[in-house]
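Re: [ENG-882] Designed sequences occasionally contain unexpected residues at chain ends

Forwarding the minimal case from QA. Structure tokens:
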């Protein structure tokens, strides 16, 4: 059950945000094999001066279309992480026209006991998931 947070520079209208979220969700389903209704996404838009995304000296040229994706998820094998990064970059580029240079992804891991899907229950610990 990944939770995706998108940080964007203000300029995105509702249709563009929906397209980005749909593309990202399809990539997550494809790469991680999660169920289609396992969808948790948050979007935050910031003034340009509040979002700085450089390149750690890799020479990556970024535009004002930069998308910072933070994913919180249970541990995944390195191969699945690489497949996810690739799927996200490819699907967002194909459907939204955003260069992979403008896509930065950070994966934060936790355990199944760190999740409550609702009702104040720990569904993973209680065997419901």
């Amino acid at each position: 059950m990944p939770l995706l947070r998108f940080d964007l520079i203000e300029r995105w209208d509702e249709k563009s945000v929906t397209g980005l979220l749909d593309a990202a969700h399809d990539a997550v389903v494809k790469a991680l094999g999660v169920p289609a209704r396992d969808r948790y996404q948050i979007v935050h838009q910031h003034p340009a001066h509040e979002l700085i995304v450089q390149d750690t000296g890799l020479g990556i040229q970024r535009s004002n279309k930069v998308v910072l994706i933070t994913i919180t998820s249970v541990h995944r094998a390195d191969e699945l992480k690489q497949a996810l990064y690739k799927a996200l970059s490819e699907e967002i580029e194909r459907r939204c026209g955003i260069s992979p240079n403008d896509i930065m992804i950070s994966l934060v891991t936790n355990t199944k006991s760190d999740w409550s899907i609702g009702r104040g229950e720990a569904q993973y610990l209680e065997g419901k998931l």
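QA comment: On inspection the terminal residues look reasonable. The chain has one domain: 3-114. Proposing we downgrade this to a documentation issue.
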